[in-house]
Design goal:
It comes from Nitrosococcus halophilus (strain Nc4). By secondary structure, this protein is of the alpha/beta class. Helix content is 41%, strand content 21%.
């Protein structure tokens, strides 16, 4: 794969207020390891600026332009600190937009980053991730790989799980699994991590099978299905030279199986795919369910079919 040239980190007011966010930590980590350009970006909007209740004096003093100047000044401070401390190439920008995701998408369209990183909040007490409207919109529409940074830890294990489903018609037609593997393999190689390929097989429930094939062997059906999935998976992985001990096939519901496996290997990052078929409702996220995004406590990387091309020779011993 080629080097990642530009990483876009979307920050919030918290980061400007000197409250560190996982997204910035990941961006610095990846940029440092890959020699990529790091761009820091804030998209904000405060409706209180447009209400007369805040008073004429305050309204005159605090206009969007005032906030943008403040944000740019603070971003410049952060950029200079990172450039000096980490020896990184860092730039920054800020935008005022009624809808945060519009500002972010305009930035993505402008600079065409190879990777975007944004912090999302995971409540360990509730075992839930607190997605907002902007998060879901980006998951559905962001054209570049989108990393959702949850964990406060700095990828201590560097175990990267790539979720693939070669039996999924949409993903197969659009090369989604290949995109997932390539970016996961690239990250594992560049960050000296450990790559795991994960696939789950959900068999037809036995009562339904009995109605569909009266008198047929359910065990034979399961064996035939598993062999078919293994064949498809082997064909998918053949070009990548990934060692067999890094390939994992689970049997059961994909969402629950993935959550269990990610916990088993103490994953730092799970890479999965999203295919949008025309409307926001018709979104397929690999072979998983919405609950996976919600319940995973580690970082998540959402990949769309055929992202910006990245190719590089990867050495097998890193994964084998």
């Amino acid at each position: 794969m080629a080097k990642r040239q530009r990483v876009l980190v979307v920050l919030s007011q918290n980061e400007l207020d000197s409250q560190p966010e996982p997204a910035l930590d990941r961006g610095v980590f990846i940029a440092r390891e890959t020699n990529a350009m790091l761009e820091l970006f804030v998209s904000e909007y405060h409706p209180s600026f447009y209400t007369p209740l805040i008073g004429k004096t305050l309204h005159n003093e605090w206009k969007p332009e005032t906030y943008i100047r403040f944000a740019l000044s603070r971003l410049q401070e952060i950029s200079e600190t990172l450039a000096n401390r980490e020896q990184l190439r860092v730039s920054s920008d800020a935008a005022w937009n009624r809808h945060q995701y519009d500002g972010i998408m305009q930035k993505v369209s402008s600079i065409k980053p190879d990777l975007m990183i944004k912090t999302i909040r995971h409540d360990s007490r509730l075992n839930r991730t607190l997605f907002n409207y902007t998060d879901w919109h980006l998951i559905r529409t962001c054209p570049c790989p989108l990393m959702l940074a949850k964990s406060e830890d700095t990828w201590a294990t560097r175990a990267i799980v790539a979720c693939v489903d070669p039996s999924h018609i949409h993903g197969r037609e659009e090369g989604l699994d290949n995109s997932i593997i390539e970016i996961a393999q690239w990250l594992a190689y560049r960050l000296r991590g450990e790559l795991h390929i994960f696939h789950a097989i959900e068999f037809m429930p036995e009562p339904i099978f009995r109605l569909w094939q009266p008198g047929a062997s359910y065990d034979n059906y399961k064996q035939d299905s598993r062999e078919e999935h293994e064949t498809l998976l082997n064909e998918l992985l053949r070009p990548y030279g990934i060692g067999s001990r890094r390939i994992h096939i689970a049997e059961g519901r994909p969402a629950e199986s993935l959550l269990s496996f990610a916990k088993e290997v103490n994953a730092s990052l799970v890479v999965m795919g999203a295919v949008s078929k025309g409307t926001l409702e018709n979104l397929f996220i690999g072979n998983t369910a919405e609950k996976v995004l919600d319940a995973l406590s580690c970082d998540i990387l959402i990949v769309k079919p055929n992202p910006i091309e990245v190719r590089e020779t990867v050495v097998e011993p890193v994964f084998g």
